[in-house]
Amino acid sequence: MALLSLIGRLLFVSVFVFAAYKEFNELGVDGGPAAKQLKPKFDVFSKHVASHIGFQVPPVKVRDLVFGGIIVKSLGSILFVLGSSLGAIILLLHQAVVVPILYDFYNYDAGRKEFAELFVKFTQNLSLLGALLFFIGMKNSIPRRSFKKLASKAKTN
């Protein structure tokens, strides 16, 4: 059973590892294609936060956001494969922050092609979020083994 769990965790994090690897190879000076895709969406997100909450998002280089995402995905993946709940929590936080920004279907009319594409990607990433929540819940519901020494029985002659 432990081998199946390991294989499952490896297959699960392959999504994050391959994405981080691709983004790292394309990073360059400007952040690569990931930064070009993220910049307009992050600007819209910043305006939404400023207008609805009144909090001004500090200016950030998009390349730094992409590099931070690479680090978070890599660290979370390593810890997750090792069976750590911390790795799952790191990936969960990454998904919870990034998915609504990248897949902003709510900024499009329901009849547009972009709406359908972004909504499908959004729901696919929600399934990853659900799997991470499931892992954390299962990890916390399994009782931990205690390694107490059993009292030795006294010998009778």
Describe the structure.
This protein has 157 residues and is mainly α. Helix content is 71%, strand content 0%. The chain has helices at 2-25, 32-52, 62-81, 85-102, 113-141. Helix 2 (32-52) crosses helix 3 and helix 3 (62-81) runs antiparallel to helix 4. The longest helix has 29 residues, at 113-141. The chain is elongated. It starts with a helix and ends in a 16-residue tail after the last helix. The relative contact order is 0.10. The mean pLDDT is 88.
Tell me about the largest β-sheet. none
Q: Give the % helix.
A: over 70%
Q: Report low-confidence residues grouped into runs of 5 or more.
A: none
List SSEs in N-to-C order. HHHHH
Tally of helical runs: 5
Round the mean pLDDT to the nearest integer and report it: 88
Strand content: under 5%
Instruction: Output the structural class.
Output: mainly alpha
Radius of gyration: 21 Å
The tally of strands reads 0
Distance between the first and last residues' Cα: 44 Å
Q: Which term fits the overall shape?
A: elongated
Give a quick rundown of the structure.
The chain has 157 residues and is an all-alpha fold. It is 71% helix and 0% strand.
What features would you highlight for this structure?
single chain; 157 residues; mainly alpha; 5 helices; elongated
